[in-house]
Each structure stands twice: as structure tokens, then as C-alpha cells.
Amino acid sequence: MKAMILAAGLGKRMRPLTDHCPKPLLPVAGKPLIVHHLERLREAGIDDVVINVSYRAEQIIDALGGGDDYGLRIHWSRETAPLETGGGIQQALPMLGEAPFLLINGDVWCETLPHPQALRGDDLVHLVLVDNPLHHPDGDFGLAGGRVNQTSNERLTYAGISVIHPGLLAGQPQGAFALAPLLRAAIDNQRVSGERYTGHWVDVGTPERLAALESQLQLQRQRGKE
């Protein structure tokens, strides 16, 4: 299985930290945030990773190169301007191929990845869902019996990690477009499975959340030394 990391965003919510540094390169626990993703992917046996870039793209490419330092191959999908999630995936599909692939938002911290075989039958998507964080109390989707829905009273939050079948984007034109409407259509067509993850997950979307994550990881390291 191949993987794609979404790293083309402008990082506006992270300003002023992203005025001169793209969000994927912001340090967490002594290394860039995106490097943690690369290391987890390699541990999961994934060798080929596509990364889309736009804002300060050359900084990211210069920092990571071809992936040799991380034991994998990085393929770069350059966007002149950010194409949103759907458009970014669509442009990268020639590098991803025709098989399902793992999709990761570059600005999340998560200590798990879905199983490569999580997508089954004629499903188009498998979502990792988490309990709603304080900044997103209403959640995104329901989950019942391993199936994602839009009708349950209890809602969970999309973790920014999923397994995607390229067929989800079939017929979509090139250019910028959002992924969410395609996800919702697939959910309504009963073609989306899901799992609930209750471990350590953070949407690293603001300087405050980045600082809180750093503090938590430092505390964990200190406890591990005791």
C-alpha cells in the first residue's frame, strides 16, 4: 500500500509560526511534525509516500529529499496554489495508482494507523474517528457496527486519517475541490466503514495546541525515564 500526506496548506491558523516555516516542518519532540508521520509509515511497512506541497514547497522538499533518510521513497506532487484536499488527491492519483491508499492530514498527531486491509468489499473509504476535541464538540459523523453514518445522535470527529479507494474521486475534474462532499455521498451510499480510536490524537492546528502537545510529550518522556 502507498500513502499520501497532505502538506500543501498555507498554515494560516499557525501564524506567526508559519510566516517563515511551513507547518509540516514545525518541530514536535525534537523533529519536524511530518517526520513523525514518515517514521510511523515506515514502521507499518509502507515504502512509497506521496506528499503534496504548495506553500514554501522548496523548504519541505529540501528538508526531506527523496526519503532515503527515512527508509522510504517520497514522491512530490507540487501545487502552484493549494488545490484543497480533493483536488490535491486528484492531481496525485497518477503517483498513487489504482489500489487503495492511506491518507494522512499532515497537521495531526496520532499514534496509530488503520490496517492496510481495513477497506473491504465495494467500500470506497475507511475512516479513523476520535472522540470530539474541545474545539470541535459537535463532531462529524456517527459510527455504528463499523459503518459510518450521518444520522447517529452520538457524533465522532474525523481524525484526518483514512484509507481511500481512488474510485471515490472518479469523474471529478482537475482543479481545486473539497473532499468532504464526496465522503458524505459515499456515506449515504453505504460505502464507508470506520473505526474509533481512543488513544493519543491531536489536531495540531494552532500554536497553542502545538505547545500543549510538546508539553504532553515531554511529560511522557520524563515518566518513561522514572
From TrEMBL:
**What GO MF terms are annotated?**
nucleotidyltransferase activity
Which spans of this chain does the record mark as coiled coil?
none
| Highest taxon of source | Bacteria
Can the keyword Nucleotidyltransferase be found in this entry's annotation? yes
Question: Which positions fall inside the Nucleotidyl transferase domain?
Answer: 2-115
User: InterPro entries under this entry?
Assistant: GlmU-like (IPR050065), MurU (IPR054790), NTP_transferase_dom (IPR005835), Nucleotide-diphossugar_trans (IPR029044)
Cross-referenced NCBIfam families? NAMPUrTaseMurU (NF045761)
Instruction: Give the protein name, as stated in the record.
Output: N-acetylmuramate alpha-1-phosphate uridylyltransferase MurU
In which organism is this protein found?
Vreelandella sp. SM1641
Gene designation per UniProt: murU
